[in-house]
Sequence to fold (316 residues):
Amino acid sequence: MARIVAGVTSSHVPAIGAAIDNHQTEEPYWKRVFSGFEKSKEWMAKTKPDVCIVVYNDHASAFSVEIVPTFALGCAAEFPPADEGWGPRPVPVVKGHPQLAAHIAQSVILDEFDITVVNKMEVDHGLTVPMNLLFGSPKQWPCPVIPLAVNVVLYPPPTGHRCFMLGRAIRKAVESYPEDLRVVIFGTGGMSHQISGPRAGLINSKFDKAFLDNLTKDPKKLTRIPHLEYMREAGAEGIEMVMWLIMRGALDDKVEEVYRFYTVPASNTAVGHIILENRGRGSGFASRHKAPAKRKPAAGRLKRAAALAKAERIRG
Ligand code: DHB
Ligand code: FE
Fold:
């Protein structure tokens, strides 16, 4: 059976991709951002997922305003990097997992999530930047990726609750796939940011940190945040955070937070990153570094010990 072992969130600021492509990662401004992902790359290298599902949003690269699917699942064999105005980023072509993707599409549609199946798609910074942050810059990405593009660009985006429930359906789909695959799911975008208008540059660290806390401990509370509250508190583009709830819905209710990083700003955005492992299922940091469980004394052994102690007292 396939299973989801962990969830990861990460901002996808395009300037992070430009800093990598232009060899600026050692500059102090960028070093602050990249150093926060060093441990995450170690974690990913140890976790070695067989497949990643990356929940992200397309920024008018694959879908123009002519067609805006709410949820679009990439079922193709590969997804080339999109040209976002400066030529395609020099990153490897993303290889898909058409079999698992088709299985997820079938399962979630029969569970009444009418997603769009996409058999040809280019992927933009929304997907490639988080891939760099978690995998570095290898010649080939180390595992296949199933992209799930969510509309958070054209009103109305899906609600946080809908996203969370889609995560639940994705988990059920993955767990009904017969092959033993270990899957990591990404929720990308966020945190607070606003790119244009009078409030451009808005960042709300208090909102972001509470969001991170609740993502681990009380995600259902987050599913009740209305769109207007995201806009007011986290800026127009802060709405990208509903995508994190798809990731969270796909995990256990109780998860282990194995890593968190928050820094302000990267370009216009607050960078938020968290790694959550499913308890008892993960094979990353938490499960490997857990103290061995104490052996529970069996009833028989306890009785024998009590009898021995009594004999000692009588002898003494
Ligand atoms: C920025 C952030 C985004 O999420 C995005 O899609 C575009 C730009 C920024 O901070 O500049
Ligand atoms: Fe974005």
In short: The chain has one domain: 3-315. The beta strands are 3-10, 51-56, 71-74, 78-79, 94-95, 116-118, 145-150, 182-188, 255-266, 269-278. Residues 12, 59, 126, 189, 237, 240 surround fe (iii) ion (ligand 2) (CB under 6 Å).
